[in-house]
Amino acid sequence: MDKLKGLETERENLLRRIDVLEEELKIQKKSTESVEKKHESVQQKEQVKPLTLFDSISNEELKIKIDSFIEEIDQCIEIIENK
Question: Are residues 43 and 55 in the same domain?
């Protein structure tokens, strides 16, 4: 009888321990999910670069625009000098 009582007590203790371990597992899963979401968020932010004026223009196009701008400045300087 004492042996049966001891086994029942041990069973109850094991069930309580299982409950505690299940709770710890739930907490760990939530923590892991949170870290994974943060990691994904960081990866997405790293992938998205802000678009600047020069990102949409090729080097050749940029050179042409700069040359054109320099010509306009030169023309303005000539006009000012001729006045």
Answer: no
Amino acid at 10: E
* Structural domain of 59: 51-83
> 15-51 pLDDT, tens per residue?
999 999 999 999 998 888 888 888 888 777 777 666 6
- Going by C-alpha positions, the residue among 5, 9, 29 that lies closest to residue 17 is 9
Composition of the chain by helix, strand, coil, percent to 5: 90, 0, 10
Whether residue 42 contacts residue 35, with contact meaning beta carbons closer than 8 Å, is answered with no
The per-residue pLDDT for range 42-64, each reduced to its tens digit, is 777 777 666 666 566 677 888 88
